[in-house]
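User: Can you predict the 3D structure for this chain?
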Amino acid sequence: MTNLYPGLGRGPIDHKASSVINIIANESLDMGAAVALVAQPATELLPRVDAADAQGEESYGIVVGGDVDGIFGTGADSTDDTTRAANAAGQGVVVVTQGRCLAKIDGTITLGAALTVSATGGLEAATTGDYIIAKALQAAADGDIAAVDVGRGGIF
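Assistant: Here is the predicted structure, written as structure tokens:
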């Protein structure tokens, strides 16, 4: 795993051109993971997100920070929470819904590629029928952390 934008620790790449929200995690979430909205518990009105982990699934944004506030890592489960934004349901996470940020990449992508959610919660090159969440701002290899432009572009 290589972080192709090592100068950024958390948050969007450009605050002026990004939409960033605070939202509630419904489970443990890794930094740089794609997330999807889920139904909130009957006892609250706040929106919640789970990891988007179905290939081509419609997603809401990319996690760039949170209560645990780890580093952008490989996405592998860490016993010490070093790569997690949140380590339990009910914790807060910061999600980029539009604009530039870092994301975990699965597979090889090219500069400008349309990206969709992979089966492991990262982003991969989209194929026909996939839901587009972002555009690649860098070429990257499997497991890299790379800059993307989140735009929720609809069906590819």
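The chain has a mean pLDDT of 89. DSSP finds no helices and eleven strands in the chain.
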